[in-house]
Amino acid sequence: MQQRVTNRPPFGIELRFERAEVDQICVDELEKSKALPATPQPINIEGFIGKHLCKNYGYEDLPDGVLGVTAFEVSGAIKFVGVSSTLDDGSPSADHRIRSTWAHEAGHCILHPILFIRDPSNRAQALWGKGSDNITSEGRFLCRDQDFRVQGAHCGYDGRWWEWQANRCIGGFLLPKILVMKVLGPFIQTSPITGTLGLPEAARSEAESLVSEVFNVSKAVARIRLAEFFPPGSAAQLTF
Ligand SMILES: [Zn+2]
């Protein structure tokens, strides 16, 4: 993780993580709490949050359009993690949306406490709380629908980089690479020349469906994750 002081609100500092670094942080946290299964299956993300990150968590009536919330103490400790009770609308996709939202909030929990530590000696704190409608003065992220769309590979550091980072944790927590690669085994081909691993384009859609089913995530989340491992249109070789 790199940290640098900026003159931009709301934090006055900016954090940067490498893609593989976020993955490693997520897997390490799952392992620490014994929430990383040995075989491919859905991660119990809600149980992981309650057991490992914050005992004070649950479903909440949140303002219109807000899907999730993470609140911090001034010490950086996690005060509360919540998901909007409106997400549970009984539709088949509700479980996927709820699981993604928990994983996103878990991302804020593990990556962002440092942003909320009030340190009077830090001049950047003067900017704290200004200029963003999804950070409240009580130290809360209010994560809206549009925040979950900040997922492109290169759009993380020209806007709400903290939301982009939390979104990276959806894949990091719900689709750990070590387990996903086990599921992808039958689809993967090894180049006879370079020895690199590749996902044939003809198999991509079927692979996305299987990953979605095995890990209980939406097809969109599976698609984004597989595109990280095997970028489409680049001979689909394993990138990290
Ligand atoms: Zn968020």
Folded structure, characterized:
It is a single chain. The chain is an alpha+beta fold. 37% of the residues lie in helices and 15% in strands. The protein is built from 7 helices and 8 strands. Strands 3-5-4-6 form a 4-stranded mixed beta sheet. Strands 1-2 form a two-stranded antiparallel ribbon. Strand 4 and strand 5 form a beta hairpin. The longest helix has 18 residues, at 94-111. The model has no long low-confidence stretch (mean pLDDT 88). The structure holds zinc ion (ZN). Zinc ion binds at residues 104, 108, 141, 143, 147, 163, 166.
Question: What are the key terms here?
Answer:
four-stranded mixed beta sheet; binds zinc ion; globular; two-stranded antiparallel sheet; 240 residues; single chain
Name the beta content range. Answer: 5-15%
In total, the number of domains comes to: 2
Which geometry do the CA atoms define?
globular
Share of helix, binned: 25-40%
What's the gyration radius in Å?
A: 18 Å
Q: Output mean pLDDT.
A: 88
Q: What structural class results from the helix and strand content?
A: alpha+beta
Bound molecules: zinc ion
Gap between N and C termini: 18 Å
Order of strands in the sheet with the most strands? Answer: 3-5-4-6
Flag low-confidence runs.
Answer: none
Characterize the biggest β-sheet.
4 strands, mixed
Number of helices: 7
- The tally of beta strands, per DSSP, is 8
User: What string, H for helix and E for strand, traces the elements in order?
Assistant: EEHHEEEHEHHEEHH
